[in-house]
Amino acid sequence: MGKRTPVCMILLWLAGILPAQVHASDTRPPNIILILADDLGAKELSCYGSTRHKTPHLDQMAASGLRFETFYAMPLCTPTRVALMTGQYGFHNGFLGMQDPAFRPLPDSPQASISNHFTHADLLKSKGYATAMAGKWQLSGQLPTLIYDCGFDEYRMWAYDHNLPDGVKHPAHENGGNTSRYWHPSLIENGKYLPTNPDDFGPDLFNDFVLDFARRHKEVPFFVYYTSVLTHGPRVETPVPGKPGERWEAGLKSSVEYLDHLMGQLMAGLKSEGLDQNTLVIFVGDNGTGGDGKGTVTELGARVPCIVVGPGVRPGVVSPALGDLTDIMPTLAEYSGAELPKDRPFDGNSFAPVLRGEKVAHRDWIYSHLDDGRILRDSRWLLEIEKGGKGERFFDCGDNRNGSAFQEVTNSSDATVQTARARFASILADMPEPLPHQGVTRKSAETKKQQRRARKQQQ
Questions:
Q1: Distance (Å, rounded) from C-alpha 4 to C-alpha 86?
Q2: What is the mean pLDDT of residues 403-422?
Q3: Alpha-carbon distance 11 to 216, whole Å?
């Protein structure tokens, strides 16, 4: 028989005197679902202050767990996804940017393939977790081992044309030429094309897969990396919950609110399977909102929602602690009991003590980057360095966390400002400088526009 928890410890835990992690120490590690929402800045959720969108389910998750006020991703998709999967900033994993080849790994570099990196799925598999991925991939890899190479046992992914098996053509495409991720979605499941119908809505099918995987793996710890396709464009009509055949008008509002509906379904499904008490759910965005922050080297481009609910997480906490994507890998390690490899750097720190209520502060500063642009933030000050050496802006944020009352002090000679700037300069001096690859021509903004126009003319 396994070791029993003393009755006195159980009573203390039930009374809220003993932290939940002591109770959990004699049991298996928690299941983990890591949700990455696409193009969703923090300001879009009502629990972060939005008056445009109703997000009751995400608000309830925040009320039942912890919500970080200031949490950073990278301003664009690919550097975010690689940072989240590796626990490293771009100067370590090679993905400083996304669209400009001067700031991505060279094609013949081992870093260019995500399968050559140690991922969060690799970490959790080392502790016996069943692993799955659902949703948007948008990283390297080829069939038939695509995604398996990164430590996942199963997957259901939105497939671009180049992800489809030889001879397969998906009938439905989005504006811009990609196979559809929404209505009549293009899907690959475990290496095979999964036919869908015109009335099938991709986000529903990804949510269904996550819940099905959880049900089938109730007897072992499981990890799901759930990369939602919502709220990325094209903005399309969404189903109306509870009203089959009806659709909400296309737009950011319907995308955000349908994502919220799916999160409600997910949490209800976990509860119905008896999994809600032993599943850690982390909900985070991948960059600022499309058309309103995304792709800009600003806090608006980097600040995303981060909500955590599950075992050991103190409920109802709005945390002023600073966090960024690199903190998630060590947090997963602490919750699972896995050990991070010693042969590579990891740039974050576990925020589990903040979740448990043992600490209020987490780290002194957080960081984000895009190409050679950088964003550095502490509890009061914010530095935004534009790409291409085009200048920088320095802000006194005070206690404000939503950008509405930041005071620009870039040109201030005040001694307090100068001391803060010197400290920021010292932090950046300890990091490798984000430089373009030698011999690779940097793309100009005008070149990118010309290429986009040419692609549209070809489609």
A1: 36
A2: 96
A3: 33
Q: What is the pLDDT of residues 99-112, one digit of tens each?
A: 999 999 999 999 99
Extract the tokens encoding 214: 């959880």
For residue 111, being part of any structural domain is answered with yes
Tell whether 444 is covered by a domain: no
Q: Three-state SS for 435? A: coil
In tens, the pLDDT along 155-209 reads: 999 999 999 999 999 999 998 889 999 999 999 999 999 999 999 999 999 999 9
Q: How many domains does the chain have?
A: 1
From residue 359, alpha-carbon distances to 7, 63, 274, 319, 351 in Å are: 27, 19, 30, 10, 9
Range of the domain at 154: 24-365
Q: Which ranges of 248-394 does DSSP label H, i.e. alpha helix?
A: 252-272, 299-302, 328-336, 352-355
- Give pLDDT tens digits for 209-241: 999 999 999 999 999 999 999 999 999 999 999
Token pair recorded at residue 192:
């095979």
Residues 237 and 338: their CA atoms lie apart, in Å, by 42
Q: Please indicate, yes or no, if residue 121 is contained in any of the structural domains.
A: yes
pLDDT at 219: 95
Helical residues (DSSP H) of 273-357, grouped into ranges: 299-302, 328-336, 352-355
Q: How far apart are CA 434 and CA 79, in angstroms?
A: 13
Tokens of 433: 């400088």
Tell me, rounded to whole angstroms, the distance of Cα 338 from its chain centroid. Answer: 21
**Nearest CA-CA partner of 437 in 76, 96, 139:** 96
| 135 is a domain residue | yes
Of 195, 192, 150, which is closest to residue 171 (Cα–Cα)? 195
Nearest to 326 by CA among 73, 68, 42: 73
Pairing of strands 130-135, 238-240: unpaired
The residue whose two tokens read 């490293």 is 88
* C-alpha triplet 176, 178, 183: angle, nearest 5°: 100
The sign one gets for the Cα dihedral 402, 405, 407, 408 is positive
Strand pairing class (243-248; 187-189): unpaired
Residue 193 region by backbone torsions, left for phi larger than 0, else alpha for psi between -120 and 50, else beta = beta
